[in-house]
Design goal:
CATH architecture: Alpha-Beta Barrel
Order of helices and strands: EHEHEHEHHEHEHEHEHH
CATH superfamily: Aldolase class I
Distance between the termini: 18 Å
Structural class: alpha/beta
Strand order of the largest sheet: 1-2-3-4-5-6-7-8
Largest sheet: 8 strands, parallel, barrel
Number of domains: 1
Radius of gyration: 17 Å
Number of helices: 10
Length: 290
Amino acid sequence: MSGATHPLDRPLVVMCAPNGARRAAADHPRLPVTLEAMLREAEAAAEAGAVALHVHVRDDGGRHSLDPDLNRRWYETLQGRLGHRLVIQLTTEAAGRYGPEAQMAVVEAVRPESVSLALRELAPAGDPAPAVVAFLARLAEWRVAPQFILYTPGEVARLHALRRRSLVPGTPPVLFVLGRHAGPDGRTDPRALDAFLALHDESCPWMVCAFGREETCALAHALACGGHARVGFENALVHGDGRPAASNAERVATVRTLARLLGRPLADLAEARRMLGVDGRAATTTRRSG
């Protein structure tokens, strides 16, 4: 999809991130911390226009968990119920609790169709450890498609340098993270995307997520530049005008509206699988209009 002749012609993949690792049910009544709640939010997000789901598994106490058995149960249930409508992506986020060994172990145990990997967590500096290089090489064998999470323009440059040396295989999709849960002034600058793109190799499809009320503006900028969007309560509980969002689906619908206003077509499931590098094991749907 990155090879389309014009950025606005690229079918837009909308990924919903309903919960994240840090927020709790007390932060919003529609933030899912149980499997049943995740199923409800995911189905509503699909109805609103999402074609991919970014999942943080929570334990019985509501905490972010990389427990392999728990992740397998959540993944298999979500895949079984919604895999015909959504790419199901598991996270490996450390969240201050896990190291690379646990992150790699959950992927090997579950072998989801899609997984998010933060470069700075798996390989904080220098060359990745041999175990990490071997792990990345085996993802294709396991039919697991990685999406690399990149927090700074410097990480963009580093990822592509590792790719050129074959320490990171292929042309994986990436997610650019704009802002933080709590930045110095609590604001996200949508123009920060430009510095990421200046160092990016367009052979790797790219997506953006952003924090707080500027999420909407940052995603609009990404859509105008031909990127894809990850949206949901992991990153923002409010709309661009500061109004509380009623649900994750409402935030997805906002991105769908942006796509319509900009003239971007929405990707169908088959196109989402191609963009995310997933091998197309599930059924596909027909492209929807914005």
